[in-house]
Amino acid sequence: MELAAKIMTGLVALEHLYILYLEMFAWETLGKKTFKGSLPDELFKPTRVMAANQGLYNGFLAAGLIWSFTITDPQWSEKVAVFFLSCVAIAGIYGAFTASKKIFYTQALPALLALLFTLLAGIGN
After folding, report:
1. Which of 12, 51, 53 shows the shortest CA–CA distance to 31?
2. What does the pLDDT read at residue 35?
3. CA-based Rg of the chain, rounded to a whole angstrom?
4. Which of 7, 38, 62, 73 has the most crowded CB, counting CB atoms within 10 A?
5. Which parts of the chain sit beneath pLDDT 70?
């Protein structure tokens, strides 16, 4: 169970590093392709700074998850992972309600699964 928790947490961290890249550095190119239909093409340039700010926050989430891998105390590592996975899950659920239901499946669900595996792996420690 611990291995599944680490793999899922790592995947969530990688996803948020990708979102950081997409929103901070590729908003007007890859972002335009990724969000085709969600935002008119002419709005990508004027929303570039806003998207970069959002990307930075996604980077902080990824950094927290990666940090959890570097902590040697198992209980502390688990608590840090639980906190950041909860942040990702809550942000994904909020995004699903306010922006697109797809966000639940792409961001919240992987975080919730990683959170579940992390909590199950920690039981009995």
Report:
1. 51
2. 85
3. 16
4. 62
5. 124-125
Rounded-to-integer distance, Cα 12 and Cα 83, Å: 13
Q: Please say whether the beta carbons of 67 and 80 come within 8 A.
A: yes
Taking only the tens place, the pLDDT of each residue in 2-23 is 999 999 999 999 999 999 999 9
> DSSP string spanning 1-69?
-HHHHHHHHHHHHHHHHHHHHHHHHSTTTHHHHHTTTTS-GGGTTTTHHHHHHHHHHHHHHHHHHHHHH
> The tokens of 84 are what?
């950041």
CA distance 118 to 66: 14
- Rounded Cα distance between 23 and 113, Å, is 25
Residues spanned by the domain of 82 = 2-122
> How far is it, in rounded angstroms, from Cα 55 to Cα 24?
5
Total domain count for the chain? 1
